């Protein structure tokens, strides 16, 4: 059965991770299957535009139950295996569990997590602590890449490393015993993980206490000593995140033909790079719309001022009042259209997403981030911004999974190709030349704007001095013309100043120059590196700096929305 909501463009969509007990009670299985089915159908009903993906280790018990339901519903399944397949088969001692594993594996996309660098394949194969570390790694991976963690759990704490209780605690609080390499944001560590969402289905274990209760949603505890906060329904903040994600997919689908042409021109096999091209195309499209609205708004504002000046000092006919009101109505209509369709917000959001995906793609292609070191670009990107921007990290989480499922292309990927494409040199393709050229171009434009505004201002002041000195020598009509010219020049200067402020020209020029210095410094450091490991470290630092700077850019522009009420 195929999923009718799957998009033609590759995308993980809304990613569900699963964790649960292996020793479920046989008599509860039909009820649990129904509850899992209701969970998936609820997501599909509430967010029909977002395709669903399940991350499952395919372990006995809860994992296989959830995977079976997902595959019956046509949900895409990515099997995240904690150890190689041949080694993993030793874990299936339940009757029929190995056959179920083989069947589900044959109908899933497979992602084998490598042996941790601190372990040895022989020690992992022997079982014990090294094996538990691999299971903990799988739990961390699922938590890091899912949007909702589906937990079939008895609700009791456990000391089992990588067990269900610890995976849930890690997802909500960022706590996992042992030194496993994964950076957690300060917000999660302090219990402010607004994006950490668990759907808890209570289950009873064989030989354990009876557990009952309806499924519930868990988020990070907001009170002292509280590890989780229960909700009857998913909190509204998560609903908004998922709907923003759906809007992005709808916009991408609406312009799919044009985006696909841009993707084909890039010719990259990297799924994250293709997602970047899509987000970049949408950001560019909405930037043009915002620029046109901004220009039209300030042009209408200037014409309103001119019409009022003409009415007050020149023509004094009711027609000019009607022109004034008509222009006001046009300005309101333009801004109402832009606000209703959220062009400004989409431009800012899609640009932030594109820049995040750009770094994520280059990191993957350079071998900086892989599944054995689960430290990802989306971990801390935009964490200090509004929680509604969490949908951007959601897209990046899904893109990360897609990227790991596709092997690197030797001709396009690697440290050297990434350095050439990402940084480049002055006068060639790359971000270094882009920031140098853009900073220079915007500086010229800003100087022209300031010169025009200054010329208008001082011309108006000059006219006022002439009027003050020679008013008695001038007839009334000429005086009125000079007063009107003074008003028009002052208005022109004010509109130009407001327009430049709205575009954030000064701040952008500083940002572009700062980014040019960062890329230039990275280029120098890379040329001095002795090996690729050092180069990867420089590229990682460069990416972190770029993500931090783009977060500041996003915040600055979100504070300057298109609002006709302040004209």
What would you note in describing this structure?
- It is a single chain.
- The chain has helices spanning 29-46, 62-72, 85-88, 97-106, 121-125, 129-145, 164-173, 186-189, 236-254, 256-266, 271-313, 318-340, 343-365, 390-404, 415-423, 431-470, 476-503, 505-528, 532-558, and strands spanning 14-20, 52-56, 76-81, 109-112, 148-153, 198-202, 216-220, 228-231.
- The protein has 567 residues and is of the alpha/beta class.
- Strands 4-3-2-1-5-6-7-8 form an eight-stranded mixed beta sheet, with helices on both faces.
- Strand 1 (14-20), helix 1 (29-46) and strand 2 form a beta-alpha-beta unit.
Topology:
Layout: E1 14-20, H1 29-46, E2 52-56, H2 62-72, E3 76-81, H3 85-88, H4 97-106, E4 109-112, H5 121-125, H6 129-145, E5 148-153, H7 164-173, H8 186-189, E6 198-202, E7 216-220, E8 228-231, H9 236-254, H10 256-266, H11 271-313, H12 318-340, H13 343-365, H14 390-404, H15 415-423, H16 431-470, H17 476-503, H18 505-528, H19 532-558
Parallel strand pairs: 1-2, 1-5, 2-3, 3-4, 5-6
Antiparallel strand pairs: 6-7, 7-8
> Which H/E pattern describes the elements?
EHEHEHHEHHEHHEEEHHHHHHHHHHH
Structural class: alpha/beta
Gross CATH architecture of the domain at 14-234: 3-Layer(aba) Sandwich
Q: What percent of residues are in strands?
A: 5-15%
Uncertain segments: 1-8, 181-192
Give the CATH topology of the domain at 14-234: Rossmann fold
Distance between the termini: 55 Å
Continuous helix count: 19
Q: Tell me about the biggest sheet?
A: 8 strands, mixed
**Based on CA inertia axes, which overall geometry fits?**
elongated
Helix percent band: 55-70%
CATH class bucket of the domain at 14-234: Alpha Beta
Q: Can you list the strand order of the major beta sheet?
A: 4-3-2-1-5-6-7-8
């Amino acid at each position: 059965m195929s999923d009718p909501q799957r998009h033609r463009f590759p995308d993980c969509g809304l990613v569900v991770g699963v964790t649960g007990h292996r020793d479920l009670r046989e008599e509860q299985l039909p009820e649990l299957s129904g509850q899992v089915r209701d969970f998936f159908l609820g997501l599909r009903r509430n967010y029909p535009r977002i395709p669903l993906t399940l991350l499952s280790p395919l372990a006995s018990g809860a994992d296989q139950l959830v995977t079976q339901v997902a595959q019956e519903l046509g949900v895409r399944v990515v099997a995240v295996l904690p150890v190689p397949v041949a080694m993993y088969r030793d874990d299936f001692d339940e009757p029929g569990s190995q056959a179920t594993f083989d069947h589900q594996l044959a109908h899933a996309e497979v992602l084998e997590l490598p042996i941790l660098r601190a372990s040895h394949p022989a020690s992992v194969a022997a079982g014990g602590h090294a094996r538990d570390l691999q299971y903990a790694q799988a739990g961390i991976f699922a938590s890091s890449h899912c949007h909702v963690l589906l937990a079939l759990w008895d609700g009791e704490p456990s000391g089992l490393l990588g067990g269900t209780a610890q995976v849930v605690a890690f997802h909500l609080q960022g706590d996992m015993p042992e030194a496993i390499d994964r950076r957690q944001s300060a917000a999660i560590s302090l219990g402010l993980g607004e994006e950490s969402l668990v759907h808890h289905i209570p289950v009873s274990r064989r030989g354990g206490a009876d557990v009952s209760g309806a499924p519930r949603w868990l988020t990070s505890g907001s009170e002292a000593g509280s590890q989780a906060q229960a909700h009857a329904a998913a909190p509204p903040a998560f609903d908004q995140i998922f709907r923003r994600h759906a809007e992005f997919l709808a916009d991408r689908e609406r312009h799919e033909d044009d985006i696909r042409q841009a993707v084909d021109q890039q010719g990259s096999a990297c799924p994250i790079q293709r997602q970047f091209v899509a987000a970049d195309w949408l950001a560019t499209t909405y930037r043009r719309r915002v620029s046109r609205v901004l220009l039209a708004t300030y042009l209408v504002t200037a014409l309103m001022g001119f019409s009022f000046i003409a009415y007050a000092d020149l023509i004094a006919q009711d027609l000019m009042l009607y022109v004034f009101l008509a222009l006001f109505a046009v300005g309101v209509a333009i801004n109402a259209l832009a606000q209703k369709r959220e062009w400004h917000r989409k431009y800012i959001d899609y640009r932030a997403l594109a820049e995040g995906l750009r770094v994520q793609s280059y990191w993957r292609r350079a071998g900086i981030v892989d599944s054995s070191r689960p430290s990802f670009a989306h971990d801390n990107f935009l964490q200090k911004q509004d929680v509604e921007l969490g949908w951007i990290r959601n897209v990046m989480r899904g893109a990360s999974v897609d990227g790991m499922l596709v092997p690197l292309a030797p001709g396009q990927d690697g440290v050297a190709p990434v350095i050439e494409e990402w940084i480049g040199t002055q006068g060639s393709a790359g971000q270094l030349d882009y920031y140098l050229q853009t900073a220079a171009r915007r500086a010229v434009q800003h100087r022209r704007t300031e010169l025009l505004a200054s010329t208008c201002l001082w011309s108006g002041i000059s006219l006022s001095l002439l009027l003050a000195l020679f008013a008695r020598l001038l007839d009334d009509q000429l005086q009125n013309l000079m007063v009107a010219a003074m008003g028009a020049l002052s208005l022109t200067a004010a509109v130009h100043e407001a327009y430049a402020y709205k575009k954030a020209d000064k701040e952008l020029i500083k940002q572009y120059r700062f980014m040019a210095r960062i890329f230039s410094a990275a280029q120098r450091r890379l040329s001095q590196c002795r090996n690729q490991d050092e180069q990867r470290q420089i590229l990682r630092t460069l990416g972190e700096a770029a993500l931090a700077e783009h977060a500041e850019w996003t915040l600055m522009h979100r504070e300057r929305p298109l609002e006709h009420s302040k004209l």
